[in-house]
Amino acid sequence: MAKQEHQEFGFGTQIRKSPYFDATLRWGAKGFSVYNHMYIPRDFGDPIQNFWNLVNTAILCDVAVERQVEITGPDAAKFVQMLTPRDLSKFAIGQCKYVLMTNAEGGVLNDPILLRLEENRFWISLADSDILLWAQGVAINCSLDVTIHEPDVSPLQLQGPQSGKIMQALFGESITDLKYYWLREYDLDGIPLIVSRTGWSSEIGYELYLLDGSKGDELWEKIMAAGAPFGLQPGHTSTIRRIEGGMMSYQADMDINTNPYELGMERLVELDIEADFIGKSALKRIREEGVSRKQVGLVIDGPALTGPNSRFWALEKDGEQVGKVTSAVFSPRLELNIALAMVGTDQAALGTRFEVETPSGKTTATVVEKPFFDPLKKIAVT
Fold first, then answer.
1. Which helix (H) or strand (E) holds 322?
2. What Cα–Cα distance (Å) separates residue 123 from each residue in 76, 96, 288, 322?
3. What DSSP string runs through 232-257?
């Protein structure tokens, strides 16, 4: 039987492509998923090699799917505070903050990075949910003077221990004093950028927010060329590293039916501030009544998982389901199967053991401390 000619995988037009889409294909992207209605590269070959590239040298990731919601106008600061339970009263121009956004029931709608570019200009750098529509809907039903839209902004992530040297090669010595969770505006040979010391990797890193999508290909190639002497590789956000760091993925480890107290994120809920915000009364009630479930870290026994879980795995105790594994992966550095899970509060104590059905069969899992690696987040802050 004659061998069939290989046909190139087709991408439709209804899902948006990033300004770096063609560049990632040239540099070896083999698989994509959809996030915020855009394609995101998820496969550049061996995910374990991608992990080692990240923690040993550096990787460049197309994260243009982190769409920006821009909020401007005389009441922008007041409006942004209404969207999050984190206190923004001391939020400085040029600063970034990790925040939660909650609905009227206290459910988490998104966990974005918030950037303050000017006195009355903010970006909400999104995880995977339609906050543009949410924010516009909130604005319609309040009397605040704001304008809300999605600007032409597409971030890249440069992450890993060599990222600082690569940034110096690109921008000079001035980049070295950019503090963790702060931003600065740059012009890189005619390419307009906002650069921040942030990233979704638990490693030292930067995000480069491109302000002109027509220059995406040029920016990608310029960074890869500057990074070549330092071992820079094209890559994708590492599930291994983010679970090691206890970093959550929206729609996997939390969603609209999850509240901050279940996630152990009460530090981002400041109920005693004078300002009102959506979900304040519900979150007060939840704090007073307590929660019935809690997120925990797990070590799963058995052979190394061959990849991250593609569905939630039931956790059982004495034959009854008491929770679920939300994210699981094998860590080659720790030589352990590690996971994030949601369990009943009476099953959340360290050392609690469960039965869990994995693709390779039924095994046991044990509650452990999280994050699994660098618990004080010293690496990213360095």
1. strand 320-331
2. 11, 9, 33, 39
3. EEEE---HHHHHHTT---BTTTB-TT
**325 is written with which tokens?**
């594994």
Q: Do 315 and 349 contact (CB within 8 A), yes or no?
A: no
Measure the CA angle with vertex 137, ends 88 and 73; round to 5°. 50
The answer, as to whether pTM is greater than 0.85, is: yes
Structure tokens belonging to residue 199: 């990233």
Nearest to 148 by CA among 75, 216, 234, 206: 75
d(CA 99, CA 313): 28
**In this structure, which amino acid lies at residue 312?**
F
- Paired residues of 364 in beta bridges: 355
> Per residue in 102-120, pLDDT tens?
999 999 999 999 999 999 9
Confidence class of residue 9 from pLDDT cuts 50, 70 and 90?
low
CATH superfamily of 248-379: Probable tRNA modification gtpase trme; domain 1 (3.30.1360.120)
Look-up: residue for tokens 């040297």? 165
Pick left, alpha or beta for residue 73 (phi over 0 → left; psi -120 to 50 → alpha; otherwise beta).
left
> Which amino acid makes up residue 254?
M
Residue 236 C-alpha from the chain's centroid: 12
- Which residues, 6+ apart, have CB-to-CB distance to 240 below 8 Å? 47, 48, 51, 329, 330, 331, 332
Q: Whole-angstrom Cα distance, residue 255 to residue 245?
A: 19
* Amino acid found at 241: R
Q: Please state the domain extents for the chain.
A: 21-66+153-242, 248-379
What number does CATH give the domain 21-66+153-242? 3.30.1360.120
Task: Using alpha carbons, list the distances in angstroms from residue 284 to 14, 58, 280.
Answer: 41, 42, 6
CA 113/CA 181 separation, integer angstroms:
9
CA–CA distances in Å: residue 134 to residues 76, 141, 149, 209, 236: 15, 11, 11, 23, 28
- Tell me which residue of 169, 226, 235 sits closest to 199, measured CA to CA: 235
Q: Among 329, 323, 333, which residue's Cα sits nearest to residue 358?
A: 329
Tell me the CA distances in angstroms from 75 to 144, 338, 382, one per residue in order: 6, 44, 36
**Average pLDDT value for the chain:** 96
Rg (CA), the chain: 21
Q: Residue 118: its pLDDT value, please?
A: 98
